[in-house]
Amino acid sequence: MATRTPARRITGTPRGTARTGRTASVAAPTRRAPARTTSSSARSSGKGSGRGSGGRRPPARKPARSGPSWPVRAVRGLYLGVAHGLGSLTRSITKGARDLEPEHRRDGVAFFLIALALIVAAREWWGISGTFGLVIHAVVAGTVGLAGVAVPVLLLWLGFRVMRHPERGQANSRVAIGLVFIVLSVCALVAIAEDTPAPSDGFAALQDAGGIIGYLAATPVVTGLTEWVAVPLFLLLGFFGLLVVTATPVHRIPDRVRGLYDRLTGNHHPDEAADDDGLALAEGVSRHDGTDPEPRKKRTRRTKAQRAAEAAEAAGLDEYAGDEAFEKAALLEKEAAAGRAAAARSGRGAATQRVGAPSPAVETATPDGAAKDTATAPVPGADLPPMGRAEQPMLDGDTVYLLPGEDSLGKGAPHKTRSAANDRVVESLTKVFEDFGVDAQVTGFTRGPTVTRYEVEVGAKTKVERITSLSNNIAYAVASADVRILSPIPGKSAIGIEIPNSDRETVVLGDVLRSSAARRTEHPMVMGVGKDVEGGYVVANLAKMPHILVAGATGAGKSSFINSLITSILMRATPEQVRLVLVDPKRVELTIYEGIPHLITPIITSPKKAAEALDWVVREMDARYDDLATFGYKHVDDFNSAVRAGKVKPLPGSERKIAPYPYLLVVVDELADLMMVAPRDVEASIQRITQLARAAGIHLVLATQRPSVDVVTGLIKANVPSRLAFATSSLADSRVVLDQPGAEKLIGQGDALFLPMGAAKPMRVQGAWVTESEVHSVVEHVKAQLKPVYREDVTAPAAAKKQVDEDIGDDLDLLLQAAELVVTTQFGSTSMLQRKLRVGFAKAGRLMDLLESREIVGPSEGSKAREVLVTPEDLPSALALIRGETPQAYDQDADGGAPPAADGAGDPYADGTDGHAPPVAKDYHDDADTDPEHGWR
């Protein structure tokens, strides 16, 4: 009993272990080994105390003295050192390989297959000798036998397929399965043809037959079913493998054979033209490049739908502009490609670029369930159907106008769907979530031209606010300050983290106008916007917006967007369809478009003339509404359709010639300059245009680099539903433009937030870029077609209109008498007006204030009489100014000059463009901006 008690205390858990916590629990296993030794020694000493315990100690020390000798330890150390060195070298190489772009990895695989094909061909085709050749022949012929002659061809095909079609990576599994079936079939048939030699006959016989694969595949079938049954079975297996490789269902075999025959014989069918996405063009929609097929002279058969459409056209107008229930201002490529939605619903495409997956074709889901294949988007370098338009006659019927071709706009680089930088960002985001203990993971991402949106899914019991609160930590981890978090992504149960790409992509306007979204409509007011964050092209219809406000700081891309907008109109619309009014207070931004036939007036550079042009637009709008009301139409499109169909006739007794109204697009490049010169007039004109001009076919584009509340007023914002915000300098500017934050986090150079009419949240887009050389090419083409025909009344003030100011009201007669009395007596006194005009003090004081506002008398000087600023000689001009008439003192011929001669020699505008406007150099400023003595004010 006494000898067992110490043993139990040593082997049991010490009391100190429970008290010391985690440190003691970790150290406890190291203390148990000596406790067991002591316990065994204590037991042995208890059983035989007469023998003594000293003889048991030497055996316990033998394991410490036992071990390998020093030569063995030296060899083992040398081996471990070499192994560690090779491992470090391998890890460094593989780490560098992981940093390679996916495109480079695919090219490396392709080059490896081509090199392997050359090596096999060197032995199987050209019979090189030597040990290396024997090894190659033993491996190839021993595996597939005589079929090894075709192995180089197969490897070359695979290599070129990987290089030419990297987007077909998802089809690799299908191609591999089909090739396995074909190889088994060929090897088995060759083995049957050579009487199925066995390995016992020697490997030379196997190499001259179907190899080991042919032996293993043919022997069981021939033994069990005889050769007469095995041959058809393997032929059927090879045919099925060929169908799998070519992705040809059985019912499509006749179509594929017919297509192959047409390709070999050159028998093409131009009437069955289809777009790049596989969708046939609608009836009457041209390819817009001048290569449209000639119409067939007679139709062999008409369907019921065609007969019904012809009957409806003969009966009357088949549709109206207001028939569409839900109008969308912005057109996305994923919405136009409706044929891809079925593939997405059937589960054949991934929602996004999955993390850890290869980077072939990427399909991104849309909020409405449609899918978009970003890898199959129009590649700028591919051969795409051209986008030019057919010839369109002008109003006079004898002038043909040909729109610019697609060669006027260049092509951009192919769109990347994945890069090594995206993989590194995914790792950084995953590490942030692990460090802060957030149950969330990155499930995929969609790469855009400027930013990449990473999709994050949170756990069932994790708050979304935990992700949004980590914005600063995420920005620190990815080394980018411009991180934008969307919670959630519209249409998805996921959080979006938008991070700028280190390798940005330039979106060119030509690719946007060649996209399927732009080709699906022939509307002349469609413009190219750019690409969204998912890599899809975005176009917008200005007729459905119906007005847009563009704002952003200097250098954010506002002027580039204006150039893309105007160039899009020139590429798609004729002068009879769209007329332009360009206002350029900067004087250098839009001068490149001077002289294009779409202009209804020379480019306006004076803010005062711009205010007068907006007033003319209001008058034009009222005139159009008068016609719409007279003939009973609600929209200018319906009116134009009726005019072309001959359903609108002039009123009886009227000699007016009724013609379709073109769309009128007013582009103001800098709204702030107009608001500084005439804020009240400009705001009133813009308010009236934006409220009423939509049905009249008049649309405004207002751009400014100063989005403050005094420039973009509440009345303007209330009537301009579409917004495009480039990078702003502050949060307040973003709220002024979008009514929400976000624009202050944009990275500039075309990065924008686009909020079209009807959209709940703005979409992030990269604006399209058009070079100056491309603009010059398009402008020279349209200027060579027609010359501009300007209207003289656009920038001219309404001289014939006598309008009394609102502040005068019914006191016009009293004010005229007061002005005549004050000017003739040269004495401005309120008490004099009371006595002479027999009015009260309040009325006399109001008359004196009105005279002061017209600069007839000076300001009040206490009890003294006011200074009279107008001499008696200038009294007629002052009275005309009060009546709202144009004063004679401001006429061009008031200085005694002779009236213009009949030949135009005395016309100051005779040397202008077509005799309708002053030269450009003289149109930069007017006389009101200069002082004849001191020059510029």
Kindly summarize this structure in a few lines.
Residues 285-295, 922-937 have a biased composition (Basic and acidic residues). The protein is α+β, with helices and mostly antiparallel strands and 937 residues long.
Mean pLDDT: 75
In angstroms, what is the radius of gyration?
42 Å
How far apart are the termini?
Answer: 118 Å
Q: Report the major sheet.
A: 10 strands, mixed
Put simply, the count of helices is 33
| Low-confidence residue ranges | 1-56, 270-300, 338-351, 357-395, 887-937
Spatial order of the strands in the main sheet? 1-12-11-19-18-17-13-16-15-14
Strand segment tally: 21
What would you call the structural class? alpha+beta
The outline comes out as: elongated
Percent in strands: 5-15%
Helix content: 40-55%
Please describe what this structure looks like:
With 937 residues, this protein is an alpha+beta fold. The chain contains 33 helices and 21 strands. The strands form five sheets. Strands 1-12-11-19-18-17-13-16-15-14 form a ten-stranded mixed β-sheet. A five-stranded antiparallel β-sheet has the order 2-7-8-10-9, covered by helices on one side. Helix 30 crosses helix 32.
